[in-house]
Please model this.
Amino acid sequence: MLPELVIFDCDGVLVDSEPVANSILAGAITRLGFPMSVADTRAAFVGLSMGQILVNIPELTGRPVPEDWRENVQAETYAAFRQSLRAVPGAGEVVARIQAAKIPLCVASSGSLDKMQLTLGLTGLRRYFGDRLFSSTMVARGKPHPDLFLHAAAQMGVAPNRAVVIEDSVPGVAGARAAGMRVFAYAGDPESDAARLRAEGGQVFTAMADLPQLLGID
Model:
């Protein structure tokens, strides 16, 4: 049976933002006096909200985060997005196929609403989703908890077990599974940990072109 709703994560699924964002994040944490590589930040923080990252950094580094740190990192990241951000290969075509099949779509991201609006706008994907953008800032607990996915399904008027989630992060897969949703875990990025995504209950795929068949559209 076709799903009644497809919920996309944003970063790493629709927009190829993880390499850029994690490069800046790694540099910013290193400047705090705790060296981290891009691989380190991806392993520790991908899928989490910036609010949760701000909680985790002092626990990890033993160093406080300056008051203006978040604002500065965001400004640097957004500037880099405006220069070089691209859509995940094949994402636009897949979203258009799903829309043509008349299956409702939305986005549920750990990122803020303004970040989603920026990245989806820069990549030309915003037109497919309109205002159907749901952020972890809208719920009490972000990924890996189920709150965001349950909120998105409720707002779209679909039972959780009739929704399918497209994720690329371990916290995202865990949160969607906790919400009682089927999850297709995109591992097309060379840095993806397919084994961990599978262990959390995601059905792993590596090419966006395969997603319509997985959803039952083909």
About this structure: DSSP finds eleven helices and six strands in the chain. Residues 68 and 112 are 17 Å apart (CA to CA). The chain has two domains: 5-16+86-215, 18-84.
